Amino acid sequence: MTTPASTDLTGKIALVTGAAQGIGAAAAVALAAFGADLAICDRQDMSETLAAIKACGRRGESEVLDVRDGPSVADWSKKIASQYSRVDILVNNAGGGFYSSFLDTNAKGQQALVDENFSSVTHFVREFTSLMPAGSTIINVTSIEASRAAPGFGIYAAMKAAVESLTKTLALELAPQGIRVNALALDAIPTPGDESLGDAATQGAREAYDRKIPLGWGNIDDASGPIIFLASDLSRFVTGTILHVDGGSHAASGWSRRDDGTYSP
Q1: Which pLDDT tens digit goes with each residue over 146-163?
Q2: 172: Cβ–Cβ under 8 A, 6 or more apart, which residues?
Q3: Which residue among 84, 99, 156, 209 is the active-site one?
């Protein structure tokens, strides 16, 4: 029976990557507010996120970590095993990119995009799944760019598409262990880390993109709500799903909203 208790995460251990700011920080604090204890990592200072977690009355452990570095992730998994003994919720949020056409992206830049957006996910799944009991959940944060052309972000988008494909495969492979795996495909949620990217892609005219988002621009809390859904028993029969959290931009598929509320192609 579905009740308000279905959202209660008390006693759960959640791990969030890229939790210093933006969506990762919002997700970590939301998980704490619903009762989970947290393990968070980032390359940047996480003191504000930790303080917010502890203000919820929950435990928080942090690690300055480069998610692209497989051995470092493996070392942290051992530390988490000693601190918490298990992980119930894994949120692979860390990622990022830069604006560049494919032909202008050199091999080093390409590898950085692969490692940050795809290999990082494989590192965490490989190292932490052994700590996840039946009933656990993995949530991979991707992008609307995984399902459409992305001029200037080609490799980034290809890696997000790879994560979505891997999400579906992992959902099947981990189902016998009772682990659910889903992904969030985000769009139109501004974060501190993507302001310059948005300006580059729209040539500074970001207000024009508003017409392509039926609900208008969102905020980081619009991402943390669906993360709570996928982390809780509300979604206990949901796995292998890509949930679009984008204000309707994926459904719009290029249609732009006129001033009178109708749309033009």
Answers
A1: 999 999 999 999 999 999
A2: 240
A3: 156
pLDDT at 16 over 70: yes
H or E element that contains 13: strand 13-17
Rounded CA gap, 174 and 180, in Å? 7
pTM for this predicted structure: 0.93
- Cβ atoms of 12 and 61 closer than 8 Å: no
In this structure, which amino acid lies at residue 73?
Answer: V
Listed in sequence order, the DSSP H helices in 16-64 are 22-33, 47-55
Q: What local confidence, expressed as pLDDT, does residue 265 receive?
A: 81
pLDDT value at 11 more than 90: yes
Q: CA 134, CA 213: separation in Å to the nearest integer?
A: 38
Question: In the chain, helix, strand, coil percent, each to 5?
Answer: 50, 15, 35
Residue 156 falls in the annotated catalytic set: yes
